[in-house]
Amino acid sequence: MTLSDNTVIDRYQTRTSTPRAHIERTDPTVWGHIESPELATFEPYGYSVIDALLDPAEVAEFSAETRRLADDPDLWLDERLIIEKTSRRVRSIFEVHKLSDAIADLVRQSRIRGLAEQILGSEVYIHQSRVNYMPGFRGAGFYWHSDFETWHAEDGMPAPRAVSLSIALTDNYPYNGSLMLMPGSHRTFVPCQGETPAEHYRDSLREQQIGVPTQDDITKLASTYGINQFTGAAGSALLFDSNIMHGSSNNITPFPRSNIFLVFNSVENALVAPFAADAPRPTYIGSRDFTPIG
User: What pLDDT was estimated at residue 131?
Assistant: First the structure.
């Protein structure tokens, strides 16, 4: 919905100077037609779990590939590699589908991108890709947030017509920092307060403080929707809506947790200028190449 070719109506105002009421979503959750039975929960919950998306041989292959990336000395000089704030260990590596031929091939497979296409009802492109590492004992979690709030505010994503696919490369237990989600919260957009600092991504990728809901917001959402947790064996995957409220706690167990994280955006939802930032984030965080994959 636009006023002109260059002005997009902001239906999800955020990063405001004063508190704003929650916004009930008017955009669809499922834009296309669901064919895969395992996606049946996506409409009501805002997420679906896919068991054994990767087989054991593929898990071993991609685990070795992600270890290779983390051990690459050249990448330690690259902005795409993010270091934990306290432990100084690798937290994330972005744009992995460009750093790894194996992950690039995975992204193009119809069994992978097809999950997103069913939900989004169009061809898709990669908005963001990364590997997340949560080491044992000192792995830092991610505070409660909606991805769409950040992608809207700082990248210029007009509508919540994007999904994330998190593919587990390690077993996800209830106690090693596995992702928590509020089922149904994808229907509610929570505006956040505070102006976006310049180059905010340099801090937020380690620890986000701007663009996160208040404790009152979280309490209200949790009371309304409850909290579920994604657990499962290595090779399982979680597909979730861009606006669902989610987060993870620290990992103080000996069991590390890592995953390949792919964000698919509809080609009909291409980025515009950021809605609440002076400049868009680097393209390795929010791609502005809208070429369909496949």
Answer: 96
The whole-angstrom separation of Cα 229 and Cα 168 is: 14
- Stretches where the chain sits below pLDDT 50 are 1-6
**Token pair belonging to 191:** 């505006």
The whole-angstrom separation of Cα 156 and Cα 174 is 34
DSSP for the chain? Answer: -EEETTEE--SS--SBSS----EE--S-S--S---SGGGTTHHHHSEEEETTSS-HHHHHHHHHHHHHHHH-TTGGGSTTEEE-TTT-SEEEEE-HHHH-HHHHHHHHSHHHHHHHHHHHSS-EEEEEEEEEEE-TTTB--EEEE-HHHHIIIII---SS-EEEEEEESS-B-TTTT--EE-TTGGGEE---BSPPPTTTHHHHTTS--SS---HHHHHHHHHHH--EE--B-TT-EEEEETT--EEE--B-SS--EEEEEEEEEEGGG---S-SSSSSPPPTTTS----PPP-
pLDDT at 130: 96
What residue ranges define each of the domains in the chain, with the CATH number in brackets?
27-45+54-128+146-161+174-243+266-289 (2.60.120.620)
pLDDT of residue 207: 63
Six-digit token string for 150: 């950040």
pLDDT of res. 2: 37
pLDDT recorded at residue 108: 96
Residues in the chain: 294
Tokens of 7: 């002005």
Structure tokens at 112: 């992978």
Pairing of strands 81-83, 237-241: unpaired
Tell me what pLDDT residue 229 has.
97
Can you give the pLDDT at residue 220?
97
